């Protein structure tokens, strides 16, 4: 199957599809190596890698080129985070085919105003667009795709904005009606109670997507047992792991006055060269260099 077909099949399958966030091709390659089902092309991680807020500051072209670079090095589907769609429904109609051509198998678009504020920021500015407006954006995305297996996921931010379950369910159903293939329901509560209540109450015919960053105690087994969730996204663990590891190593080097104390605790240069695809390049040299 193609990557698009693999992700499409997961929406109706009986196994949970797990996507790990990545902010560059190397992180994506490591996630593929670890055995995740797919890659989450995270806007949060990409913004963080540029040391910028996740607030619609990076350009669409920066997002797009990173998705292209990521998709070229992994064998698993890529779900592209396109934030609020970089504009209105007309903009969405133009950019979705570009993300599809770049190798993404799906886009996730959220129903917040532009410019957005990251969902998990304390006292963040969480303003939602009108339901009808976002329906237009979802319909435009669904119509613009070239491959029928390309997946359009609508992200409902009503719980993030404190608008409650009724509003979240209303929006989810409206986005399903507009042509969404799945609903990503998001929460920043420290327990999964709010999300579990939504799952239990969800009357729609399309599956749900979760990002359990704020409530890590909810395991994949717990999620699968609810029966309505098909995709779990680990939204920011690659960049957090990278930052933690770099801080630790950098601090030790400064403390030791040299690299003698860290050399045996980090991956070897040989390991990095292998991840760079050196073997493939050497094969091309042997075959074509005269």
From TrEMBL:
InterPro entries reported in the protein's UniProt record: ICL/PEPM, PPH, Pyrv/PenolPyrv_kinase-like_dom, Pyrv_kinase-like_dom_sf
Pfam family, one: PEP_mutase
UniProt superkingdom: Bacteria
Keywords attached to this entry: Hydrolase, Pyruvate
Record flagged with keyword Plastid: no
Gene Ontology MF term list: hydrolase activity
Keyword Hydrolase tagged: yes
PANTHER family linked: PHOSPHOENOLPYRUVATE CARBOXYLASE, PHOSPHOENOLPYRUVATE PHOSPHOMUTASE
Protein family membership: Belongs to the isocitrate lyase/PEP mutase superfamily. PEP mutase family.
Protein name listed in UniProt: Phosphoenolpyruvate phosphomutase/phosphonopyruvate hydrolase
């Amino acid at each position: 199957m193609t990557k698009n077909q693999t992700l499409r099949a997961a929406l109706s399958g009986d196994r949970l599809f797990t996507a790990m966030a990545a902010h560059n091709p190397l992180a994506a390659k490591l996630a593929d190596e670890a055995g995740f089902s797919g890659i989450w092309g995270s806007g949060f991680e990409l913004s963080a890698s540029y040391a910028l807020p996740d607030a619609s500051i990076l350009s669409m072209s920066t997002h797009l080129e990173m998705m292209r670079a990521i998709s070229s090095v992994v064998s698993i589907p890529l779900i592209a985070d396109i934030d609020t769609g970089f504009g209105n429904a007309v903009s969405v109609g133009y950019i979705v085919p570009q993300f599809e051509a770049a190798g993404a198998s799906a886009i996730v678009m959220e129903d917040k105003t532009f410019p957005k504020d990251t969902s998990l920021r304390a006292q963040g500015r969480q303003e939602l667009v009108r339901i009808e407006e976002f329906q237009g954006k979802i319909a435009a995305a669904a119509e613009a795709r070239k491959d029928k297996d390309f997946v359009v996921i609508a992200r409902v931010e009503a719980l993030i904005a404190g608008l409650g379950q009724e509003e979240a369910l209303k929006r989810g159903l409206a986005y399903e009606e507009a042509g969404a293939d799945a609903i990503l329901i998001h929460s920043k509560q420290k327990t999964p109670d709010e999300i579990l209540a939504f799952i239990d109450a969800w009357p729609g015919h399309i599956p749900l997507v979760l990002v359990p960053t704020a409530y890590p105690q909810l395991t994949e087994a717990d999620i699968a047992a609810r029966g309505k969730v098909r995709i779990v996204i680990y939204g920011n663990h690659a960049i957090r792991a990278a930052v933690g590891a770099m801080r630790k190593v950098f601090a030790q080097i400064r403390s030791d006055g040299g690299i003698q104390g860290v050399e045996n605790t980090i991956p070897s240069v040989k390991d990095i060269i292998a991840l760079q695809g050196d073997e493939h390049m050497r094969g091309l040299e042997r075959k074509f260099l005269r």
